[in-house]
Amino acid sequence: MPVKHIEEYRDREIARRLIAQIHAASRKPIRLMEVCGTHTMSIFRSGLRSLLPETITLVSGPGCPVCVTAQREIDQFVALARREDVILTTFGDLLRVPGSGSSLQQERAAGCDVRVVYSPLDALALAARNRGKKVVFLGVGFETTAPTVAAALLSARAQGVSNFLVFAAHKRTPPAVGALMAAPDLRVDGFLLPGHVCLVTGTRAFQPLVDRYRIPCVVGGFEPLDLLGALTRLVAQIEAGAAVLENAYERAVTASGNAKAQAVMEAVFATVDAEWRGLGAIPESGLKIAEAHRALDAEACFDLSVPDVPEPRGCACGQVLKGLRIPTDCALYQKTCTPMHPVGPCMVSSEGTCAAYYRYHGGEGA
Amino acid sequence: MKPDTILLDHGSGGKVAHRLTTDLLLPVFDNPILNALNDGAVFHLPGGRLAFSTDTYVVDPPFFPGGCIGDLAVNGTVNDLAMCGARPLFLSVGLILEEGLPMADLERIVREMGRAAAAAGVQVVTGDTKVVPRGAADRIFINTSGVGAVPAGVAIDSSRARPGDRIILSGTIADHGITILTQREGLAFQAAIKSDTAPLNAMVAGMLAVETDIHVLRDPTRGGVGTALNEIAEKSAVGIRIHEDRIPVRPEVEGICELLGFDPLYIANEGKLLAFVAPAEAEAVLAAVRRDPYGREARIIGEVTADHPGRVVLETRIGGSRIVGMLTGEQLPRIC
After folding, report:
1. Do B145 and B170 fall within a single domain?
2. Do residues A164 and A261 share a domain?
3. Taking CB atoms and an 8 Å cutoff, what residues of chain A touch B324?
4. H/E/C letters for each residue in B112-171?
């Protein structure tokens, strides 16, 4: 399976020209936020920060789905894992996320049946093979993963696999970006919008936000040249005093997005208010299983009430997610909070801002 | 009648166990020291320093494209000895078998061990077999230990990297780890990727023939090239700079890494080495590596610096730089 068309987006000469262009255009000190965890990783992996002028500061937003999953929901996942009648299935990066008292990894070590899958369809196949158990898939992710979870749920219904359930903790990106833009303490001059999310939602999902808050926004792809191209356009907008929505990922993203993916989400999920770890409640920012599919909704089928426990003291993840602080400002960073023993959610997922800093920015042992 | 699966009796020390030794193991590993069937092997060694190493193999699945747990277990210990600059001579083999293991699987694994030992020019001179009840182990685990002779003048050590040293990598990275991953998870990639498991002792002998003073040798197995380089930077108290565009990765392996979010720098290899050599000797040693069948794609991927001691810095394809840290947590369990 050779992956073609990657080298073109890593060309050193074109990169050099774009970087020179950014250096020439950037005058005033600005802060730009990438709201996608994959962007955060790509920026680190390509060493982009080391090539940008001092005027540009890149800050990472709430773009790692694992990181913004509420502690309460993690506690509910743990409660599910402890049930004898349940096989819990999840993407791997959720395993180490600490709830208030435990994590799925700890539960697995204690003998609970928690399995890592690469696709919700694998969980569905597992359910078909284990009819005596309830196989619950943890639906954590943005508009990029929600459609495949919805499709798996519809397949389960079509195939009559009634022991396949979904715990939907999906999040919608535009309301969260809107909440950031509306925040009075926001210190961001422009947003690098998530290319993969826009591939599904279309750029039109973000247009009302740009119209309302007048903040420059550019949709970007994930290869180094995609990122540089998007940054070039953000800098140009800001220097010109413009504030529009631009698409710098035209080879993948359209205005209207992926109609099929939107339809399948529409068919399965209902939009609800949701709690984001570190950010608090954001209206209409969550996706739960719609009433019509209640029979496959893990939250409807099990009693998952868990006590309210405050989030850990001293953890700056909330401010990191808003771009107000960087990980190295946090008193816990690299001391009590490391990828091996994460305290806050941003340290857990490889796409979390703190974990990315730790890995690529000279954490312990680096 | 010959049973077609492993029974607890095969580890009993009785008749059935004896037959397993005489019918399967002795013909494959055939040599006078082993055939004597004493409690231990007695052999002559050349004078001078010895290298001694041990490793245990629990890879899941035991058969994978490019090899199996048998040749992996032989190559792994052969390579550990070779990384000391030693000429591997004798191995021991300890087998832990789960009751119910198909006899055909064991025969195939043992034959592959015999073939790998012959290819590496080492003799299996002592061994042990245990059988544990179903569920107490997963099919087959293998321990191999080995001794080798270190030639005079060889002083390979992770603490001997010096500023200016060139870093040679003997070929493509991440092949083994990604092969195991795709097999384990049943990922339906239509890619012809296979494990790179291979003996590196002939390659090392060729390198030492052109330059005795190789500073550091490592086979980047678990933790990959990234972790191995970090350990060397720390032990030698030097900085290391590598260049992304010089590190060979097969396109299909890179594609799977992209898809699953893995960094090939942290994925295991089982037939590759990293060598640190003074700049004046680097080209000659590189040429020696390339003459070996397992080193044709070797490259100089970077150099040692006096700057940033203890740190590994990668120059990215677009000319940026980033730190390559230690791997934290387990990316992938039971890969070897």
Report:
1. no
2. yes
3. 366
4. HHHHHHHHHCCEEEEEEEEEECCCCCCCEEEEEEEEEEECCCCCCCCCCCCCCCEEEECC
Residue A98 lies in a domain: yes
Residues written for chain A? 366
Residue A48 distance to chain B (closest CA, Å): 6
A137 lies in the same domain as A86: yes
Determine the residue among B229, B256, B322 to mutate to test chain A binding: the one whose Cβ has the most chain A Cβ atoms within 10 Å. Answer: B322
To the nearest whole Å, the CA of A205 is away from the closest chain B CA by 26
Contact residues, chain B, for A340 at CB < 8 Å: 328-329
What interhelical angle do B279-291 and B201-210 show, nearest 10?
A: 140
B96 CB contacts (<8 Å, ≥6 apart)?
B130, B132, B137, B140, B141, B142, B143
User: Hey, is B61 helix, strand or coil?
Assistant: coil
Q: Is B326 close to A361, i.e. CB distance below 8 A?
A: no
Rounded-to-integer distance, Cα A354 and Cα A326, Å: 8
A33 — pLDDT class (breaks 50, 70, 90): very high
Domain that holds residue B38: 8-150
Q: What is the pLDDT along chain B (336 residues), one digit of tens a residue?
A: 567 999 998 988 888 889 999 999 999 999 999 999 999 999 998 889 999 999 999 999 999 999 999 999 999 999 999 999 999 999 999 999 999 999 999 999 999 999 999 999 999 999 999 999 999 999 999 999 999 999 999 999 999 999 999 999 999 999 999 999 888 877 666 668 999 999 999 999 999 999 999 999 999 999 999 999 999 999 999 999 999 999 999 999 998 888 777 889 999 999 999 999 999 999 999 999 999 999 999 999 999 999 999 999 999 999 999 999 877 655 555 666
Distance from B243 to chain A by nearest Cα, in Å? Answer: 12
ipTM of the complex: 0.75
Q: Do B74 and B207 share a domain, yes or no?
A: no
Instruction: Specify whether B128 is located in the same domain as B211.
Output: no
* Number of domains observed in the structure of chain B: 2
Structure tokens at B100: 């119910």
Q: Is B296 found in the same domain as B266? A: yes
Give the domain-ending residue among A239, A269, A285.
A239
Domain that holds residue A152: 66-172+257-301
CB contact under 8 A, A339 and B185: no
B52 shares a domain with B189: no
Rounded CA separation A349/A40 (Å):
12
User: Does any domain span residue A197?
Assistant: yes
Q: How confident is the model at residue A4 (pLDDT cuts 50, 70, 90)?
A: low
β-partners of residue A31 are A57
Say yes or no: A276 and A150 in one domain. yes
* Nearest Cα residue to A38 out of A259, A238, A194: A194
- Domain total of chain A: 3
Q: How many CB atoms lie within 10 A of CB A315?
A: 24
Cβ atoms A212, A53 nearer than 8 A? no
Q: Which residues of B touch A45 (CB under 8 A)?
A: 263, 316, 322
For A351, the token pair is 């796409």
Q: Are residues B110 and B191 in the same domain?
A: no
CB–CB contact B325 A44 (8 Å): no
CATH at residue B177:
3.90.650.10
CATH number at residue A28: 3.40.50.11750
- φ, ψ dihedrals at A246, nearest 5°: -120, 150
| B67 phi and psi angles, rounded to 5 deg | 170, -165
Same domain, A19 and A157: no
A39/A158 same-domain check = no
DSSP letter assigned to residue B102: B
